[in-house]
Amino acid sequence: MPKKYSTPKRDIVVKTRMTTEEYADFTERAKFCGISQSEFIRQAIENSVIKPIITVSPVNEKLLSDVGSLTAQLGRIGGNLNQIARYLNERGVPYYTLYGDVQSAISDLSDLKFEILRKVGDAVGDVQTFKL
Questions:
Q1: Please, are residues 123 and 59 in contact by the beta-carbon 8 Å criterion?
Q2: For the stretch 87-101, what's the b/e string if a residue is b when 16 or more beta carbons lie within 10 angstroms of its beta carbon?
Q3: Is residue 2 part of a domain?
Q4: How does DSSP classify residue 69?
C-alpha cells in the first residue's frame, strides 16, 4: 500500500539563484529549524512581513516637495474654514445658512487634496523593492 501524505499536492516549482554564502546561510537556517528547504521557504513566505521600499528618482524630488507644500497649504486653508464654520455655528441664525456653504467648501477642499495626491502618485509612479 502506497504511503499517504497529509500535505497538499504541490506542482509548481520555483527556482532562484544564490551566492555560495547565501546558500550556506539558507541551508544552515533550514537545518537549524529541522525542516526541509522547501518548508523553510513556504514558512518564510507565509510568516514574513514584506514592506515595499519606495524609491524616488532625483527628478521627482522637486515635484514631491512642491506637492508637500501645496498639501500643507490646503491643510491650513481647511483649518481656517473649520474655524469660520465653528464661529458661524456658535452664532446661530442668521449665520446658519452660511454654515452649510462653509462645510461644503471644507468637503470640496478635502476632495481636492486627495485628488492631487492620487494624480501625483499616478504621474510619479512607485518603484518597489522587496527585501525578505
A1: no
A2: ebeeeeeeeeeebee
A3: no
A4: H
Domain that holds residue 85: 53-129
Count Cβ atoms below 10 Å from residue 81 Cβ, excluding itself: 19
pTM above 0.70, yes or no: no
pLDDT tens for 37-55 read 998 898 888 887 777 676 6
Mean pLDDT of 87-95: 70
pLDDT of residue 129: 42
Same domain, 97 and 71: yes
Which percentage of the chain shows pLDDT scores above 70?
Answer: 73
Please check the confidence at residue 27 and state whether its pLDDT lies above 90. Answer: yes
Does the residue 7 lie in any domain?
no
The count of domains in the chain is 2
Element (H, E) at 120: helix 96-124
Co-location of 64 and 124 in the same domain: yes
The answer to whether residue 28 is domain-embedded is yes
For the chain, the distance separating the N- and C-terminal CA atoms, rounded to the nearest angstrom, is: 42
